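Researcher: Here's the sequence for the chain we discussed earlier.
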Amino acid sequence: MKAALLHPEFGYYQRGETFGAKGDFVTAPEISQMFGELIGLWSIDCWVKLGSPEKFHLVELGPGNGTLMSDALRSAALVPEFLSAAEITLVEASEQLTLRQQQTLSSYSITWCDVWPTFRDTLPIIVIGNEFLDALPVRQYEQVDGHWAERKIALAKDKLIFKCEDIAASALPENLPSVSECDEGSIFETNPSAEKICSNIAANIAKNGGSALFIDYGPSESGLGDSFQSVQHHKYTDPLDNPGTSDLTAHVDFARLGHLATVQNCETYPISSQGRFLERLGIEARALVLSRNAADNQKAKIAGDLQRLISSKEMGTLFKAMTFYANMTEGPAGFGE
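Model: Thanks. This is the structure I predict for it:
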């Protein structure tokens, strides 16, 4: 999965168009400017609740085309002190996407990293990750003949196939369910990369203060199931067919990542649906403001974009929002009733 997405020559994210109508899928920031604008205001809210520090780290993971950060910084211009305090870092493993982000955000002072950076200062940190965790490589385990085996990818007659392989009990993940609780053929997924990066971020936040926001798709509770999937030209395809030509993702185990954040002494809120999170941030009021002086066709698009982001029939329920934080006067906006 990692090779298919990030190989320096043949990886999917090294290609030209991946996001948007001309690409293979559309992310929330590409649907409407409202999404990124509200994330910018969410960041300002966190900064205020951190005591409005003179300097802090603002980090986005997997920034795509740079659209979210561009919209967020534009709305953040309402509070110039926030912008002057922000030390902005973008974490991007794709060289092609980094070049695109540099063009989109050329008017800002930004540092780029290809992995999570090591901050050697004690500044608070605000982290944003939209559709980042789902692209990190998962491992799968399948119950075979009453025991757990790892589900791997093998080559058979010039064709990629799934194949189960026995592994030592000591190599099994600690949160793997008991075989007595699962049926034969059950599949359990883990994401070591997501667990590691969330634990590192949480440790940094617990030490220096700050908050993290992750928006992605997956269930609110941990469970069984094969969620490994491939999308090409906005349609599902076989994930083993022509690797490097389609987007590979898997559902995010929000409950597991939230637990790991609490282990690092961060506070959390219950997982929220994306739709409810955006409603709490005031997306409907923002849509009304944008519609006031818009032409009829623009009004229709704004209304359609709003529904696509918050409706249970679109992205509103499938996508979830998760936060963890520390050393704030109160929790981040958008969570809780």
